[in-house]
């Protein structure tokens, strides 16, 4: 038989097999989803505006549990508050694996606590939680560090005397310095060139990972990895950050005092020494490097991006900022700095911060999970190792829990008496066993930085509120707020 006829026959056979899988979707009994093409998967059904738009549209047709083929590999999508909670909380162990993000996989692989699986992940997460708690509750608590950093920022912003500025770098500095004080045992000056360069690299990585080209790479990794592109730029940036971390680790090793560990790196090095004869230990150099990278990056970018969105929203809705400042004046006044004890007496401010997190929808697709064993879920058999995307955006915009999900409205988090109310759909940090490691620190940062800035400054924009565009600059792995200018005007306080 002619080779071209054989090839055509093979392609048709593959297509028919996938067509038969279609709604029942191979691998046993996967959830329904669009019919995939050989090799291409569901690429032809993808919206050109990105994966998130595509995934949200598929829910309307197929329901709350959907199978999508990203290239040749099947992925299960989970939509809505109840579905996500049922999977990540009620079936926590089964959904506790971590999937891959293709553009960072070649460098990070399965090391560090964010992308590790199995016993490695459990051991590193336990160690990291305990160590961060120790250094966050010691002689200088996280609260004290945040309050001091907030005052440094206030002094820095006063130098601008109300002139317009892009707040990206300043908000990165303050959040980076909190995690740096825990991981590296020091904070950096806002004029430190190496520090500023690292922050530029972080910002660029997050933007590139969230770009359309990275989403295309996720679909065709096997082919595109051999060509130049965004993935190589991301790898280059990560390598540069790892070089910095490597130098820090060596400095720590040279000055280590076993009786008084100074920070996360010291504590890890002591554990490495303790387990050096254990050939199966997870406390080795590679896991140290990737764990520090994970903490440094996540601890810097998530909170700073949320704050950046927050102040953009205050410019768009100045009446909200005014109400926050009124509550600050009533509860805190002008003669002392805000403390975490103030939060319970400031329900409106707390509700505003919750709504900023909900509305900004920072990680809309959520980090990918992996099923750790064959699992029966809502009548479908999910095979071990299949990847699962909990679409956190579908919870944060769940109309069953938020009256006007596409509108910025702090009332979403206030009851009839004006008290803060809990909402089951509030999942900006995800939930279950893979819930964000730094949730507690992030919540404290957002409250103390937000209130300290608005205690000392009124904010205004060179652009009229009605003309402020909230459309994200990128919307992929993360939502990146648009670039904007803001004026911090010193408040005349009594």
Automatic annotation (TrEMBL):
<keyword id="KW-0349">Heme</keyword>
<keyword id="KW-0472">Membrane</keyword>
<keyword id="KW-0503">Monooxygenase</keyword>
<keyword id="KW-0408">Iron</keyword>
<keyword id="KW-0560">Oxidoreductase</keyword>
<dbReference type="InterPro" id="IPR036396">
    <property type="entry name" value="Cyt_P450_sf"/>
</dbReference>
<dbReference type="Pfam" id="PF00067">
    <property type="entry name" value="p450"/>
</dbReference>
<keyword id="KW-0732">Signal</keyword>
<keyword id="KW-0492">Microsome</keyword>
<dbReference type="GO" id="GO:0016712">
    <property type="term" value="F:oxidoreductase activity, acting on paired donors, with incorporation or reduction of molecular oxygen, reduced flavin or flavoprotein as one donor, and incorporation of one atom of oxygen"/>
</dbReference>
<dbReference type="GO" id="GO:0005506">
    <property type="term" value="F:iron ion binding"/>
</dbReference>
<keyword id="KW-0256">Endoplasmic reticulum</keyword>
<dbReference type="InterPro" id="IPR008068">
    <property type="entry name" value="Cyt_P450_E_grp-I_CYP2B-like"/>
</dbReference>
<dbReference type="InterPro" id="IPR017972">
    <property type="entry name" value="Cyt_P450_CS"/>
</dbReference>
<protein>
    <recommendedName>
        <fullName>Cytochrome P450</fullName>
        <ecNumber>1.14.14.1</ecNumber>
    </recommendedName>
</protein>
<dbReference type="GO" id="GO:0020037">
    <property type="term" value="F:heme binding"/>
</dbReference>
<dbReference type="GO" id="GO:0005789">
    <property type="term" value="C:endoplasmic reticulum membrane"/>
</dbReference>
<dbReference type="InterPro" id="IPR001128">
    <property type="entry name" value="Cyt_P450"/>
</dbReference>
<feature type="binding site" description="axial binding residue">
    <location>
        <position position="436"/>
    </location>
    <ligand>
        <name>heme</name>
    </ligand>
</feature>
<dbReference type="InterPro" id="IPR002401">
    <property type="entry name" value="Cyt_P450_E_grp-I"/>
</dbReference>
<comment type="similarity">
    <text>Belongs to the cytochrome P450 family.</text>
</comment>
<keyword id="KW-0479">Metal-binding</keyword>
<comment type="function">
    <text>Cytochromes P450 are a group of heme-thiolate monooxygenases. In liver microsomes, this enzyme is involved in an NADPH-dependent electron transport pathway. It oxidizes a variety of structurally unrelated compounds, including steroids, fatty acids, and xenobiotics.</text>
</comment>
<dbReference type="InterPro" id="IPR050182">
    <property type="entry name" value="Cytochrome_P450_fam2"/>
</dbReference>
<feature type="signal peptide">
    <location>
        <begin position="1"/>
        <end position="22"/>
    </location>
</feature>
């Amino acid at each position: 038989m002619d080779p071209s006829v054989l090839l055509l026959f093979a392609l048709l056979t593959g297509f028919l097999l996938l067509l038969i899988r279609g709604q029942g979707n191979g691998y046993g009994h996967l959830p329904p989803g669009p019919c995939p093409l050989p090799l291409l998967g569901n690429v032809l059904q993808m919206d050109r505006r990105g994966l998130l738009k595509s995934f949200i549209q598929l829910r309307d047709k197929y329901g709350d549990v959907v199978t999508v083929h990203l290239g040749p590999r099947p992925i299960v999508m989970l939509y809505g508050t109840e579905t996500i909670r049922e999977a990540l909380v009620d079936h926590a162990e089964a959904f506790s694996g971590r999937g891959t993000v293709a553009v960072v996989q070649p460098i990070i692989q399965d090391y560090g606590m964010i992308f590790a699986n199995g016993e490695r992940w459990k051991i590193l997460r336990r160690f990291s939680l305990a160590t961060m708690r120790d250094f966050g509750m010691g002689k200088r608590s996280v609260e004290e560090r945040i309050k001091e950093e907030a005052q440094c920022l206030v002094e820095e912003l006063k130098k601008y005397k109300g002139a317009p500025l892009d707040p990206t770098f300043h908000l990165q500095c303050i959040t980076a310095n909190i995690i740096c004080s825990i991981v590296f045992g020091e904070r950096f000056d806002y004029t430190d060139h190496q520090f500023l360069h690292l922050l530029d690299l972080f910002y660029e990585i997050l933007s590139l990972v969230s770009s359309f080209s990275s989403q295309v790479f996720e679909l065709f990794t096997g082919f595109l990895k051999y060509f130049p592109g965004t993935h190589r730029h991301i790898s280059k940036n990560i390598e540069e950050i790892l070089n910095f971390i490597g130098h820090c680790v060596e400095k720590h090793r040279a000055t280590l005092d076993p009786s008084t560990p100074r920070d996360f790196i010291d504590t890890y090095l002591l554990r490495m020494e303790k387990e050096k004869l254990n050939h199966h230990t997870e406390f080795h150099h590679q896991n140290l490097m990737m764990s520090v990278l994970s903490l440094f990056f996540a601890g810097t970018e998530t909170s700073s991006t949320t704050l950046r969105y927050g102040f953009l929203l205050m410019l768009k809705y100045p009446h909200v900022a005014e109400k926050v400042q009124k509550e600050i004046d009533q509860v805190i006044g002008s003669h002392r700095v805000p403390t975490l004890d103030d939060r319970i007496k400031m329900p409106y401010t707390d509700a505003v911060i919750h709504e900023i997190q909900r509305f900004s929808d920072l990680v809309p697709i959520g980090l990918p999970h992996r099923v750790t064993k064959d699992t029966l879920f809502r009548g479908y058999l999910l095979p071990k190792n299949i990847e699962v995307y909990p679409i956190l955006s579908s919870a944060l915009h769940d109309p069953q829990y938020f009256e006007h999900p596409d509108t910025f409205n702090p009332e979403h988090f206030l009851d009839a008496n004006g008290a803060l109310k809990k909402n089951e759909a509030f999942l900006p940090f995800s939930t279950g066993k893979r819930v964000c490691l730094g949730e507690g620190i992030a919540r404290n940062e957002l409250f103390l930085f937000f209130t300290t800035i608005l205690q000392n400054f009124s904010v205004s924009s060179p652009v009229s509120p009605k003309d402020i565009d909230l459309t994200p600059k990128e919307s992929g792995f993360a939502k990146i707020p648009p670039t904007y200018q803001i004026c911090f005007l010193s408040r005349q306080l009594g």
